[in-house]
Amino acid sequence: MFALDPFTVLFTTTLTCAVLAAAMVSVHLSFRREVAGVGHWACGLAAMVGAGVLFLLRGKLPDALALPVANVCLTWGIGLSMIGTRRFFGEPGGWAIFHAAWTLELAAILYWLLVEPNFPHRAAAFSFIVSVFYLDQLRLVWRHRVAHFTSWFFGALLALQCLNTVSRGVAALFMEPDAANLLRSSALANVYLAIANFMALLITVAFLMLATRKLQQILEQRSTHDPLTGVLNRRGFLQFFGRVRARQQRSDSPLSLMAIDLDHFKAINDQYGHAQGDKVLMQVAAVIMRSARQCDVVARFGGEEFVVLMPDTTLAHAQQLAQRIQALLRDSLQAGTPSCTVSIGIAGQHLVSESLDSLLARADHALYRAKANGRNRTEIAGPAPLAA
User: Fold this and answer.
1) EC number(s) of the enzyme (predicted)?
2) Domain for residue 387, yes or no?
3) Contact, 11 vs 57, CB < 8 A?
4) Which 8-state DSSP code applies to residue 180?
5) Which of 168, 212, 297, 340 has the fewest beta carbons under 10 Å from its own?
6) What was the pLDDT predicted at 388?
């Protein structure tokens, strides 16, 4: 029978945990605002390193000191990973579960180590307590599941680790006393030792994969969205228009575009300051988003100008949407926010061959006409010339 050297496995795992902890710290320091929970995972890995060092020093330190502290550190490490996963998914930290678990683990190991020595009971207590942390993370993965490999990979590893941990607890209670003793060479101990240490490292890597994917999504959103109002920027709008244009060419459906500009916005900034001006922009963006349909897309093209692309929309329906925006803007003024109005120009794309630049230019010309005719009004652009 092939036997694993527990001390070699433990040394390798401890060293790898230290490297992963350093990687987690680097990610946390760089993206602490973007990705929550990574710092707790880093602290958990550091606690596991401390536990590994204490287990490696067993025999040089009294068991009455080394074993309780090492087991508590290991419980802290797994518990902090649970808290980190909770933070990552935007849920409360679960500190009550964490403190109850490590306190119960410390009481159990002290009792069955000093008062009534019983290794199987110590092993079972640890296994069942830490399995709660894995089960809670499994719950989080299932609740926030997405159809992506990283999510399923993380969940599968947690399930396997939980099953492995519970199996050791059951073996400690109902099989021979040495079955769950990792320092003794047995088939069950070898299987548990291999799976537990390998899974602990893989679970950490899987969480890093989740964090990396979330960070990638955040960076992609930042590249396509306006940071102040949350609507699309010009780059995001161009990407969306490309998809709409391809669909329109297949179905020959109508398409309308609305150019919106705040009236006298420079006067608002000069009189109330740029902070109030930003609030006005956010309020206008919120009103436009609330008025638009789910299939419409809203973008900010810089300054105080917004653009709304409306697939499968005629000019008549686009004009109704413009009137609704202006009415909502009058009725939804927040206390302390300067009042404002908007001028709107609308252009309809009747020729599939017309370029986006031509469509935007016609909507802008209608917008300028609305400004010239007294502001706070809507104008419709004329049809595109055949040359467009």
Assistant:
1) 2.7.7.65
2) no
3) no
4) G
5) 212
6) 47
Tokens of 75: 């419980």
Are residues 268 and 196 part of one domain?
A: no
Residue 94, φ and ψ in degrees, nearest 5: 75, 35
Tokens matching residue 62: 């009294």
Asked whether residue 228 is domain-assigned, the answer is no
Residue pLDDT, tens place only, 49-75: 999 899 888 778 888 888 899 999 999
Higher pLDDT, 136 or 382: 136
pTM above 0.70, yes or no: yes
Whether residues 250 and 138 share a domain: the answer is no
Q: Once rounded to an integer, what is the mean pLDDT over residues 119-137?
A: 92
Q: What is the DSSP string of 226-238?
A: -TTT-SB-HHHHH
Q: Give the three-state DSSP class for 349.
A: strand
- Cα(14)–Cα(295) distance, rounded to whole angstroms? 52
Structural domain including 296 reads: 234-380
Two tokens, residue 312 = 């499968």
Among 341, 337, 370, smallest CA distance to 262 is for: 341
Using CA atoms of 167, 171, 172, 173 in order, give the dihedral in degrees to the nearest 10.
110
User: Taking a C-beta distance cutoff of 8 angstroms, is the pair 158, 203 a contact?
Assistant: yes
**Residue where one domain finishes, among candidates 201, 222, 243:** 222
134 and 30 within one domain:
yes
Predicted local distance difference test score (pLDDT) of residue 334: 60
Neighbours of 383 (CB within 10 A): 14
38-56 and 6-31 helices, crossing angle to 10° = 160
CA distance 105 to 87: 24
pLDDT value for 158: 94
What's the whole-number mean pLDDT along residues 215-238? Answer: 88
Alpha carbons 162 and 85: distance in angstroms, whole number:
15
Burial (CB < 10 A; 0-12, 13-18, 19+), residue 181, is: middle
Question: Identity (one letter) of the amino acid at 299?
Answer: A
